[in-house]
Amino acid sequence: GSGAEAESAAAAFTKMLSGEGFDAAESDAIASAAQYGRFRSEQKLAQPGSSWPSYVAFILSGSLELSPWSLQVDQGGIVGAMDYFGETYFGETCSVKAVGDGRLATLSFAALDTIIFANGAKGPLVEKLLKLMGGFAMLTCSSMTVTDADGADRPLKQLSMVAERESQKAKTKEVRGEG
Fold first, then answer.
1. How far apart are CA 104 and CA 135, in angstroms?
2. Handedness of CA 34, 111, 140, 171 (dihedral sign)
3. Could you tell me which residues come within 8 angstroms of residue 98 by beta carbon, excluding any fewer than 6 positions away?
4. Rounded mean pLDDT of the chain?
C-alpha cells in the first residue's frame, strides 16, 4: 500500500494495542514490526487443505469467517495465535474467508520472536503480548463447534475482544459484589 495508507493502518494498530493496555513505546515497537494489508469481501485467506501462513493477524477493520465452525472474528480479533503457540485448527475442511472489506496488521512468527527476545521474555511488553494472543487463542478454541450431523445451519458466533473484555469485567464486578 501507499505510505499514507500504511501510516493510517499503523495508527489503527497502535490505537488497538493502546486499548489492550500497551503503553505508547510498546505499541510503537509492535506496530513498527508489523506488515499491513487489505482484504476484499469474500476473499479466501486460507483454503481447505492448506495451513495458515506463519503469521499472527490482527484485524484492524472488517471480519473474517473461520469455517467449518461458523465463527466470525471481528475488528480487534486475532487469527493465527494458536498456530504461533504450536497448535493449529487448519486441515482438510478449514478455511478463512473475508466478510466484507477490511484491513490487517500481521506479525510474522520471526518478528514475534524478535520482539520477545529484544524485550526480555519476562518483560511487561512480552507478558501483555502473549497474554493478549493466548487469551484470544483460548477464546477461539472454546468458541469452535462442529456442524450438526444433519447439516443444520447455525448462526455465526461472533468473536470480538471488546465484547469478551466487557463480559469479563462484568463477571469480575459480580464476583466482587459490585454488580
1. 19
2. negative
3. 39, 40, 41, 42, 43, 44, 45, 62, 63, 64, 65
4. 83
The per-residue pLDDT for 111 is 95
Computed over its alpha carbons, how large is the radius of gyration of the chain?
17
Rounded Cα–Cα distance for residues 53 and 32 (Å): 20
Range from 37-41, 55-59, 96-100, 118-122 carrying the lowest mean pLDDT:
118-122
Res 120: pLDDT: 86
Query: Based on the number of CB atoms within 10 Å of its own CB, is 26 exposed (0-12), middle (13-18) or buried (19 or more)?
Result: buried
As a whole number, mean pLDDT of residues 84-106 equals 86
Band the pLDDT of 133: cuts 50, 70, 90.
very high
Task: Provide the grid cell at 35.
Answer: 506488515
Q: How far is CA 127 from the centre of its chain?
A: 17
> Cβ neighbours of residue 41 under 8 Å, at least 6 residues apart?
98, 99, 100, 101
Amino acid at 6: A
